[in-house]
Automatic annotation (TrEMBL):
Top-rank EC class of the record's enzyme: transferase
Metabolic or biological pathway: Purine metabolism; IMP biosynthesis via salvage pathway; IMP from hypoxanthine: step 1/1; Purine metabolism; GMP biosynthesis via salvage pathway; GMP from guanine: step 1/1
Needed cofactors: Mg(2+)
Family recorded in the similarity comment: Belongs to the purine/pyrimidine phosphoribosyltransferase family.
EC number: 2.4.2.8
Name of this chain's protein: Hypoxanthine phosphoribosyltransferase
Record key words, sorted: Cytoplasm, Glycosyltransferase, Magnesium, Metal-binding, Nucleotide-binding, Purine salvage, Transferase
Amino acid sequence: MRIADIQDDIDHELVSKEQIEAKIKDIAARVSDDYRDKDPLVIAVLKGAVNTVVAFTQALSIPVQMDFMSLSSYGSGTESSGTITVRQDLSTDVRGRHILIAEDIVDSGRTLAWLVEELKRRGAASVEIFALLEKPARREVEVDVKYKGFEIPDEFVVGFGLDYDERYRNLDSIAVLKPSVYQGDEA
Ligand code: PRP
């Protein structure tokens, strides 16, 4: 789905399909160099990171193993809290593995801070992060993102995996939603 398909719902485009592709290609080249002899395990947190991890791993020039996790953070509304529970776990033993987490967005940082600690606790040899988007204004917890995509303002963004009410994940770029789309929910 493209912006033109949902024009009435979109205020403006923030990161184009071409910009996303170019950035992912760049980072994938760096990662391919950095991990050439490390047999890396790429981990994605469902569901938002799916688009990112697919595009990213396809752009790598080395074979990697992939695994997925489903986490839930309990909090009010769109705010995530510090309490994270595993809804669906990895099927891979991470002991001694070099792990690269591919994430769509770092918001408060709580999800990634928890995940990095959890993977280290399980015995990973190393844990690094690739995040396509970061919202610095929302950061609450320190997280070291080695491979950085785009910094974006604190606006309601959808697309390339990011949803509003489970929709718009299949938009091929990243865009700001019109307030009228979610206004009813905020009343
Ligand atoms: C989003 C996103 C990250 C997390 C980032 O997932 O995919 O995993 O929030 O937020 P944080 O930095 O404040 O922890 P979400 O919980 O919305 O679920 P989804 O991926 O299924 O959309």
